[in-house]
Write a structure and sequence with these properties.
- The radius of gyration is 46 Å and the shape is rod-shaped.
- The protein has helices at 2-9, 175-230, 235-276; strands at residues 16-18, 40-42, 50-51, 63-65, 73-74, 86-88, 109-111, 132-134, 155-157.
- It folds into 2 domains: 2-189, Ribonuclease Inhibitor (Leucine-rich repeat, LRR (right-handed beta-alpha superhelix)), CATH 3.80.10; 234-280.
- A 7-stranded parallel beta sheet has the order 1-2-4-6-7-8-9. Strands 3-5 form a two-stranded parallel sheet.
- With 280 residues, it is α/β, with parallel strands linked by helices.
- Helices cover 38% and strands 9% of the residues.
- Pfam families: LRR_1.
- Keywords: Coiled coil, Leucine-rich repeat, Repeat.
- Residues 206-233 form a coiled coil.
- InterPro entries: Leu-rich_rpt, LRR_dom_sf, LRR_domain-containing.
Length: 280
């Protein structure tokens, strides 16, 4: 077949291999045979559904054009293509990018328009020479605000993302306005992040103090029980209670003496009456 003829021929003298406009459904395993001289791979307009881990074998790759396919997933091994300067994955079905893509630090152009992206990995901030980021017509909710601090960016295209809240819709067509919006948000973060960190620290300290207070309250209750139990062992308390007990016993004893005297007196009265009026 014609596509296999193109593959068999291998990269040209410039290191380019064009397998576009064919019916490839997966990356040909034979590509690894050219890993030391394949610099530019063009596989646009095929039927690819994913970029597998075998992409990591193409360590010399500088250009990768896989636009106009059906790709849903890009394996993290793409991060081993550290010489990659241009990645075109537009017009596919990619929903998430692997964080390892940030290892492609020499990336200059990242084109991912017309996909299903909801976010960009912050690891892309390591691409210190990036100049073009095209993420038009996706489902992005936000853009990394730190992009505004990357001086090499000349184009940041984000039109056609209805859920993008970080940039007003009427500003998304102007790279300078987009970067200005992101810069303003980043400045707010620069102010708020330390305050949020302090707030988090204070809350953690508050929780610690609340726990210590609970522990102290429990300890106080236990000490109160211990004090109540040990009161009898205190000499002053013991002597006080002993004096109170002795006074109580003395009162009881005096009352018993009084009752005995009354009984004795009443008994003799009765006895005298009995002697005077004997009962037969």
């Amino acid at each position: 077949m014609e596509e296999y003829d193109d593959l068999a021929a291998g990269p040209d003298k410039d290191g380019s291999l064009n397998l576009s406009h064919n019916t490839w459904k997966a990356l040909p395993p034979e590509l690894s045979d050219f890993s030391n001289r394949l610099l530019h791979l063009h596989m646009s307009n095929n039927q690819l559904t994913s970029i597998p881990e075998s992409i990591g074998a193409l360590i010399m790759l500088r250009t990768l054009d896989i636009s106009l396919n059906r790709i849903e997933n890009i394996d993290g091994q793409i991060g081993k293509c550290i010489r990659l300067r241009m990645l075109n994955v537009s017009k596919n079905r990619v929903g998430n990018l692997p964080v390892d893509i940030g290892n492609c630090i020499l990336m200059e152009e990242f084109i991912a328009s017309d996909n299903l992206l909801t976010s960009l990995p912050r690891e892309m901030l390591r691409m210190f020479v990036i100049s073009v980021i095209d993420v038009r017509n996706n489902k992005l909710h936000a853009l990394p605000t730190e992009l505004s601090r990357m001086p090499t960016i000349t184009e940041l295209l984000c039109d056609g993302n209805p859920l993008l809240g970080s940039v007003p819709e009427n500003m998304r067509g102007d790279t300078n306005l987009v970067l200005a919006c992101l810069d303003m948000q980043q400045k707010f973060k620069d102010v708020l992040n330390p305050l949020e960190a302090q707030h988090t620290e204070l809350r953690a300290r508050s929780d610690e103090l609340r726990y210590d207070l609970t522990q102290a309250s429990g300890r106080i209750q236990q000490l109160e029980k211990d004090v109540s139990t040990l009161k009898w062992e205190r000499p002053d308390q013991y002597l006080q209670w002993k004096a109170q007990l002795q006074a109580h016993i003395r009162r009881v004893f005096d009352r018993m003496i009084q009752l005995l005297q009354i009984f004795k007196r009443e008994f003799w009265k009765w006895w005298e009456r009995r002697k005077t009026y004997p009962i037969y």
